[in-house]
TrEMBL record:
Protein family membership: Belongs to the cytochrome P450 family.
Keyword Iron: yes
GO MF assignments: heme binding; iron ion binding; monooxygenase activity; oxidoreductase activity, acting on paired donors, with incorporation or reduction of molecular oxygen
Entry annotated with the keyword Zinc-finger: no
Entries under SUPFAM superfamilies matching the protein: Cytochrome P450
Keywords: Heme, Iron, Metal-binding, Monooxygenase, Oxidoreductase
PROSITE patterns: CYTOCHROME_P450
Binding, heme: C428
Protein name: Cytochrome p450
Pfam families: p450 (PF00067)
Amino acid sequence: MLQLWIVLVTFSCLFLYVFILPKWRNRHIPGPRPSLLLGNVSELSRQGGTAPLVFERFRKQYGDVFQIWSFYRQIVVISHPDDIKYIIVTKNFPKAEEFNLSLSPLAGRGLLTVGKSQHQERRRAISKHFNEDFLRQLHRHMRVELMILLSKLQQVTERKESIDFDKEATSYTLDVMCRTGFGCTANTQEDASHPISRAVNVSLREMYHNLVAYPIRNCFGLYSSPALKNATGVIREFASQVIEARRTESEEDKTRRPLDLLDIFLKMDNLSDQNIIAEIATFLVAGHDTTSHTMSWLIYEVCQHPEIEQKIQQEVDTIWGDRQDWMLSFEEIGQLEYLNKVWKETLRKHPVAATGTLRRLDTDVTLPSCGMLLRKNTAILVPIYLVHRNPEFWPDPETFEPERFTRENTMKRHPFAFQAFSNGPRNCIGQFFATHEALTTLSSLYHFFTFRLACRAEDVKPYHAMTMKPSVGKVSEDAKGVSEYVKLPVWVTPRNTMAHLREE
């Protein structure tokens, strides 16, 4: 009997210390009322894929700073630019370990997840190679993949069928990232069954589950998810084979091809093959999914604003002239001022990395926007979705308005109110290439085609799982060529002929 009482008392004290005391100590921070055991998990998971929308409802109710609880884990959510600057730049607090561990099965200790002490050196070593000459080489990598995409769209117009644009864009950007990363293609645009495509999608999904279910799944590593273990194995094997082939490449073959990311990593000192694989995998997974979904959201918004589409096409056609080619030059992409505004407004309204970054305080802090005290070891979430919808800095945030990004409006706005690529020492190293890739692709798409939604605009909903993508379960009755469940069905109409374009 005594032993039973000891067990009960021990369990009660442990429950009090883990689940009740932290909530009581942080009662001064506003937020939805948590249950003692689950916290706010039930409300956050009630409808899958809608976490950013739930956060937005909480922000409207509790303000720019509020807390949520995942079982015993406290997460303070901030969305005021002054606080963001303080957390990620002034103090540059480290990324939370749960973020690093959840992504480590694929990203290892690459640039995305490496600790604060090593990040600066690794970042500097990579950044010195990301010059204009190298980015010109990456521009060359896009030519073949872009031609395949345009040809597929042309075939759709001839068959008078609709197409799932997000699906096609995701295959396209994955092939582009394979070329820019490894110097070879996975050819997923023409072979949807390629194992690398499924492996990337599974990895993204399972790593998101790791983060949501932390630390339960992480305690068992890859054994908690056989699907993740298999997917990361496919990606790593693919990368290993390419690395081995590169090391045995002849000088003649090397001089004939454009440079890629693998060239950069192989030149770096003290970078093991496992670290090279981690870096390439990070660029591959993060680089293709974010760009493809953002292009899809742009198509979605422009389809609802014919006047914006007309301005894009006028700008593109003026630069294009009468050339017989399927893409603009590297220099000409920089002249796409209006399309760049549309791109930024899409990143503002539909930030694909909607839940942003997760940091961990290594000291007590007082938030500058409100004077609220946060204790050491508090996890801080910076959801880009909330930052970009803060009406104090983005009036009428639900309106799609590219003019927000004129030079004059940008100068007047708080510099940390736009977080599409984050800010500070850990901002996105690939942001210039992502923008360049998107503008290059979109300029060709709008030169050769016009797009219209094959569903009602209100039927397209955001679905968030690591990245935020469009999703619609219902298409127009006359839509052909797409499955019943799609992400973004569109009609494609030709504008300019592709008949005389030369192929390489």
